[in-house]
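Q: Structure tokens for this one, please.
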Amino acid sequence: MAEQSTRVEERPTTLDALGLLGWARLCVEQLAAHREEINALNVFPVPDSDTGTNLLHTMRAAVDEAEGEEAWTSEGGGTAGAREIAVALGHGAVHGARGNSGVILSQVLRAVGEAATFTVVDASTYRRALRTAVTLVDNAISDPVEGTVVTVLREAASGAVRSSAATLVEVARAAADAAADALDRTTGQLPALTRAGVVDAGGRGLLVLLDSMVEVLAGAAPDRPAYARPGRDVPAEVPAAAADDHEPEAGTQYEVMYSLTHTDDARADELRSALRALGDSVVVVGDGGTGDRARWAVHVHTDLIGPAIEAALPLGRVSEIRVTDMLDPVGTHHSHSHRHGDADERVPAAPERTVLAMTPSGPLAELFEQAGARTVDPRDHDDGAVDAVLRVPAGELLVLPNGELTRDQIVALDAALRDVDRHALILPTVSVVQGLSALAVHDPTTTLSIDGFEMADAAAAARHAHLVRAEQEALTLVGRCSAGDLLGVIGHDVALIATDLEESVCQLVDRMLSSGGELVTLLLCDEFDEAATEGLLARVRGAHPGVEVVGYDAGADGMLARIGVE
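A: Here is the predicted structure, written as tokens:
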């Protein structure tokens, strides 16, 4: 008995930094072991069998960040505290979140960081962390549904609060057992789960984390049933009819995720409201950071990829865009029916993928065509840009608006493409230079979703500016301009007023490169003859010797110069 008592005393009663990191690593191991089980349970809100994979990827990202924090602190001769490791776990999870379940997991880890003291995680910390997680998740989700991971998390927090134990292990056990009871009830709370005879996949993943905490503290995890047990297994390929289990999601095709920085809580709330009008499963969560280092993970299920990304552009800096076709994740459906007006005809299903760039006719269009795209000049079509796009015979279509379409035109085009059942993506290119950046990474050998994601990511990484001549006197953000003045616009804001053409371009480039960049692309109008173009390129290269600078003729399209920085 004495020997057994000694072993019990060796179990930790609180978790310091290394103990917390050990728990996180065990979570990764257990999520990997249960990944297929969790994937098989995944029938809600979309039966795409990836919840286990998304949770594992998110947890790995969290551990990577925390290990980096611990190593950095050790190299500096210091010792990381529990709070530092917990905060790093939350940051890593938000930065690497995958899927709706991963985004929610990130808030559970963030909550531990907000609740932890510097030195240890104890019983009161754990209770506070679970309560904080419930608050964060409730604030982040646009349409919480009972019978999901949200319910399981809420019951876990309640179980921890109800426990009168003073030790962390007993509080952790109470939270895990309450979560397990709630998980069992999810089968009867959602029709989709009832018909499939399974528990909620996200809730099962959360239970893995809670049970891992018990295992770290007690030496063994609680016994749980095989949730995908015989007679209740969900096949890896769920019948398409299962997608109709949740009516609001039935017609939603794409999962759109991206990161947002240089914003704040108020603008995150504004984005959340905007996305609610565009789709379902809206989640916008932060990592708890402040200033420009803070990051938000954005998730939405929608048919409107372009508008879902564009909604964030005026609210912060968008990066790491990921788009998944939930109805056809491997891009296998290529038979499309064309319905427009009273017509009902077949659109030829071409085996190749077409990139269609909206751009003015002339040298700019030639640039896109040389890079392998087809082009449409919206101003050349009396019947409208939408009809011009619909006439392009393509099995798969990637549309680059390039700032040539208004928001209303993009919405109309999206509706028309869905009406004809066209397998297409409208990418968020708001300038010609962003369109060229997207086209540079186009890969027709990948799936449409992956190709679209890589192209959208490249476009988002390309900062853009242009130079125009003022048509009348006006008040701008940088002062009053007169008719004929040169206006330098970075993004969507006037950044300078000048009179010298070459000097204006140089000043715009200088300002854009002040925040970094490796490649400058200049698209110059026909006011720049060959000598003026060479002189300008030489001047920019001389001022920025470590930056690659390329220039192209843009013809006469109303803009004096377009600038892209990557």
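A few notes: The two ends are 68 Å apart (CA to CA). The first strand starts at residue 254 and ends at 261.
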